[in-house]
Amino acid sequence: MLYDFLVVGHGLAGAILAQTLEKRGHNVLVFDFEKNNSASNVAAGLINPVAGKRFAKSWQADVFIPAAEEFYRNLETELGTTLYHQKPILKLFSSIEEQNNWMGKSAENQWNEYIEETYPSLPFSETVNQELGGLKIARGGFVELRKMLSFLRQKLGTQNKIRSGTFQFSNLKLTENGIQYEDIRARHLIFCEGWQAVNNPYFGWLPFSINKGEVLDISVQNFTTGCIYNKGVYVVPLGEERWKVGATYNWREPNELPTAEGREELLGKVKQLLKIPVEVTGHLAGIRPATRDRKPLIGTHPEVSQLSIFNGMGSKGVLMAPFLAGQFADALAGKSVLWPEVSIDRYRKFFNESEQKG
């Protein structure tokens, strides 16, 4: 059989791209080595239209959020399960300075759709350090990524459209009609390898800036809320007194090993938020495929037209991937072009330099 696309990798990016291509009528095969602690399995799956201490509106939030909401709701309908939990995010101020920074930005019209309410102060709470006030952010939420990836993998398995294993570049052959990998033939191959792209001989020239993120699973008794908390860390309600806390950013140790330092950093920030005891029930680490300019890396190889990449979404993949997968599918079909901010063409000089060195 000749497939239209071979997608290598079934983390968040690969799963969403494969689903998008399939829905557009393409014959897709996925090749993946499943890892329990991949970045997609570790992450909390947050969608947050307001990011960082400087209260920056997430890049292209007005485009990404509607596309993400539609994608995950449609996927829930198809799979017959709940995946996307839309919840307000209560961003609590950590200091008077942070409070003042927001007040200086709050008059801008760009926030109208996303800031449900501003609290200059909040009443004393027995459970939460919230007296400095904060923001109630609308259109936030989280996706159960581990569950989503598991369901999609099962679906592909029943259709005989997924192969398990470690991709060996020595077994890849370029042909006139596309590619051949062992007994697999496809017109086009798309790499969605996450941080492993740094070892890809065709796309290793791209400027990834991988970093490790650690998260905790915690149990908190007699504490319920309808929102996601954000104060130095995010604290996401998973139900049944279970919460996910994250995340750290570590560029010094790009490995997948949880550390005592990461645990203490996260617990210290939880204690700045919560006044009640917590019990750690899990501790995981994953490597984010972040990039130098914090924008995705998408496109077809400058010289090998059979090969493309869909990667580099860092901690924003849940938000960005649904729209960008659609845009990339259109670009591959010749119906559209990629945004220059995400196209690998912006780094063509790096490819030229790598060729000169080679």
From TrEMBL:
It holds the Pfam family DAO. Coiled coil: none annotated. The keyword Chloroplast does not apply. It comes from the Bacteria. InterPro entries: FAD-dep_OxRdtase (IPR006076), FAD/NAD-bd_sf (IPR036188). Residues 4-330 form the FAD dependent oxidoreductase domain. Gene3D superfamilies: D-Amino Acid Oxidase, subunit A, domain 2 (3.30.9.10), FAD/NAD(P)-binding domain (3.50.50.60). Keywords: Oxidoreductase. This is FAD-dependent oxidoreductase. It comes from Adhaeribacter terrigena. The lineage of its organism: Bacteria, Pseudomonadati, Bacteroidota, Cytophagia, Cytophagales.
